[in-house]
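User: I need a structural model of RRM domain-containing protein from Selaginella moellendorffii for a docking pre-check later this week. Nothing fancy, just the predicted structure tokens so I can convert them on my end. Input:
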Amino acid sequence: GKIFVGNLPYGVTKEKVVELFSRFGPVRDVIWIRSHDHPERNKGFCFVYYGSSSPGACALKAAEVDGVEFEGKKLAIKLDDGRKSRQKGEEEYGDCSDEPAAQRFRETMEIDAGNWHKIVNAFQVIDKPVLREYGLLVDFYARHGDKVAARATFEAMRASHIKPNVHIYTSLIHAYAEARDMEGAVACTEEMLSQGIQLNEAVFCSIISGYASAGNNEAAEHWFEKFKAENLVPGGIVYNSIVQAYCQAGNMETVEALLAQMEEEGFQGNLGLYTTVLNGFAEIRDEEKCLSFFHRLKACGLSPTAATYGCIVKLFTKAGNMAKALDILEEMDKHGVSPNKMIYAMIMDGYARGGDFTAAFKVWEDMVSAGLKPDIVTYNILVHAFCKAGRMDKALGVLENIQANRLLPTIETYTSILDGYVKGGHIQKALEVFDRIKTAGLRPGVVSYNSLLSGLAKARQMENARLMLDEMLANGVVPNERSYTALTEGYARAGDVEKAFGMFQRMKKENLAIDIVAYGALLKACCKSGAMQRAVEVFQQITDAGLKHNRITYCTMLDGWARKGELSKARDLLKDMQKHGFHLDTICYTSFIKACFRSGDTEEVTETLAVMREKKLEVNARTYTTLIHGWLAAADPDQAISCYEQAKASGLQLDSALSNCLLSGLISCASQNSTLGEKIQAISAEIAAQKVVVDAAVVAKMDRYLRRRARCS
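Assistant: Understood. Predicted structure tokens for RRM domain-containing protein:
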């Protein structure tokens, strides 16, 4: 009843290992091998002993899931017959290379597991890598979702006349699944079978998880049924894999159906599985089902652990209900369960997102007082929370604390800071952080690149955004749907419909999942450039693709018709929105007012404003700007000034858009109406008094007008 477990993540706890292997039978004991240099870490392997009346059968079941992914690493699970654990690597990938460079490479994989540059450089200096070194590198790329580099390494191995085995194929499939290229992942399974290599449980887990994470539930279920058709009995690992994947995708209805199926087949769920489901309900903030499942878990005689309670804490902190989250901590204390670092981190995150930074730091102090040493994971959550709240000064302070405690910032640390600067509109600072990532020896991933692409697109630096995309590809980072959508949105802002369509076509060519956000970006490009026929086609494509229109797609289309002055089409679209259950808000009516002005129907403008007042809808700055622009275009400056006075009377704070529109329009009208001079000067003084920033072009226009007026007088 004894098994050897190798390739353990160094930071994993003994409790988590017990939880994993209890799925196959009662665990009698775990011999935990600690590192001499770092006693708080394991040495990368352990031995598990089963109890019960048939420990050998339990051990056999556990050994069948050799290669399963656990906490980001693929475990080597072997029946132990008393031989030394050094045979572990030989069983997976064969003998290790005797080259000193190969040994240094393996050491780098253990010590600097997150340093992409060090790992790649260490591999490149090996004269003749063997299957083991190739396998480790493919596995490394797989964990980072780099299918291009994983495939290139795999092909280099075959070019060296080294025959691949099931383990390296499993890693390659995982790389494709992580990159959401399920067509490529399935092609790998066909390649395996053509070479006489049978698919194992770990392969099926990767395929099932990949499809479910991509939202393709039908394909995930197909592979689950295929797994059973291969006369392989679904065990805890497979069920846990498909349940976890559906939970990550937020498809909890399918999860509930799977749990019912498990019960029908006589499979008893374990604490790990139930915790996964709890976490799924917490992620979608379904409080009723989350708490119901929690009570069901306890009714089954299972004792909640810190990880289980953590799901409930997450539920409440995500909802901002800190009082209930603290109640859970009290319940844990009553049952003798101590909060772990992740629970403290979630409480900190909840307070920080609510803007209560004092309370967040108090929780930090409580965690330290409880004897828990902050690690990079808890630091990262704090950095992320501050960045999300726009408190970049606090985030940088935490970064300094990380370095002062001799911890190494990770790619997640820097990406949070980078994203914070992007969302704050500080693209130059974001680029500087991006350079720091590379200087630190870290490899920017698709999330980091996507954040920069979005920032560059918003800053209308489309040439730099295009070059950034080229850099991604050159560095082996595969762009995803968010990458191309960011560029499509950028070209939409610039009104470059052809380039927007070009990005959209690249998404289709890459077989990426095109969602409503991507279609919305393309629709915006069409409407902004005035290509309404193409906009109509894109609008229809959304329906044909099985997607539902949202308020954004309707409002984008409405604004497109308004720009063209197509009043009847704008009116029909408003009716269609109401038909599909959308409430008409200020944004909708403001676009309709623009359509009225463009079509020359000023009476409809008055009627629309009356409808807005009747529905008690706010007339905001954008509405007043549209009204002022419309009346000025209709050569009625008195009405424009009246709207300006109404805006002031409503307590509305003047902004640049309204001020620019009013001043520029009145100056243009002044050539035909000499009585406007004093009014223009009075309004100009009011705008200056409120310290509203006016465009340089408007200032220059004002200067020319005043000079002209002075000469005339």
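Before docking, keep this in mind: Residues 2-64 form a domain with the Alpha-Beta Plaits fold (CATH 3.30.70.330).
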